[in-house]
Amino acid sequence: MAMTQDWIASAGQPLRGTLDIPGDKSVSHRAVMFAALADGTSTIDGFLEGEDTRATAAIFSRLGVRIETPSPSQRIVHGVGVDGLKAADGELDCGNAGTGMRLLAGLLAAQRFDSVLVGDASLSKRPMRRVTGPLSTMGARIDTDEGGLPPLRIHGGQSLTGIDYTLEVASAQVKSAVLLAGLYANGETVVREPHPTRDYTERMLKAFGVDIDFSPGFARLRGGQRLKATDIAVPADFSSAAFFLVAASIIPGSELRLRAVGLNPRRTGLLQALRLMGADITEENASEHGGEPVADLVVRYAPLRGIAVPEALVPDMIDEFPALFVAAAAAEGPTVVSGAAELRVKESDRLAAMANGLRTLGLRVDETPDGATIFPGELQGGAVDSHGDHRIAMAFSIAGQLAKGEVRVGDVANVATSFPNYDGLATGAGFALRKA
Length: 436
Description:
Number of domains: 2
Structural class: alpha/beta
Largest sheet: 5 strands, mixed
Distance between the termini: 19 Å
CATH topology of the largest domain: UDP-n-acetylglucosamine1-carboxyvinyl-transferase, Chain
CATH class of the largest domain: Alpha Beta
Number of helices: 13
Radius of gyration: 21 Å
Low-confidence stretches: none
Strand content: 25-35%
Helix content: 25-40%
CATH superfamily of the largest domain: Enolpyruvate transferase domain
């Protein structure tokens, strides 16, 4: 049994400097997958050296793809073509990566061989029916444990047929799984969404030469296409940058520059919400990497005010709510979140975990089934549980910078899955944060 690891966060310095945030996790997963399926050799720069993304790369190595690591954050992937994967000798471990497991379900459902996808304790509690359902409609055969939970036992050798599918719950992971299965299916596959979600898969398939038609909330491709190798520069991860955007916004005297952050419009709801709250965040050096918009973000301390978060922004900031809750705790007046029921089925029940943690630190938080109202106030010291959820751990490390006493953040080992060396980067910028 692995030892749990805790942090002690306390009042630190104003945040200063220029930070290089690790590469985007969503883009890193997909870059390795699509490069593996492409004809030819692709180079990936800025690959996130996190446990989740390494787990995905390791899976493709076991499926017969040669992947070199000439230097940290770089991968050279020798693609085997859409029909070149080989059966692995045993279970494929996705670690903590819901993205990895759900996308691989779509991809492996179309192969000639059987596969079994497993994950860690947290991933093994995450619902997979929303992805196995539409894949079954296409002709896939995937068995799960009771309640639609992992492991996923995927039966190979099935003939898949394209579908026109409307997602019940907007999910970029489910959409992507259906589109990847659609690459192998007979005919055309169409995915429609109740709300537009992140379009990393669509943008990157296009970069790899796939003829795909997409617009917000809609994607269509025909089966039988091949991918052409291409080089990918992975932008800095906006969800990781989010913690520093919030921290510099609420710690007086702060000014940070975050370099080359990915600004996919389906990802940056938090940026819009913070600006509505009065945050001082500017964009400089805008460019485009591999179909993704990128810019430096310069953030300076500014007094924030509470808002009713527009529901239209919620799907575009679903991973950033732990950081938003801390911004709300430091604002003037209450902040109201609604339409965010999806937060209850992430790595943890993020609504409950953030609400309970802020209450422990002395604030009033009123929960609803799909959101919460956060009443700001003076944060006290205390012990909060991250429930092994990396984003909650990082959020409370920020809260500790404003607290009157020390904040002990429990169970932080999973931060390495998405943001290696977060604590090193944070303390270098001015955080007071140490291992307990």
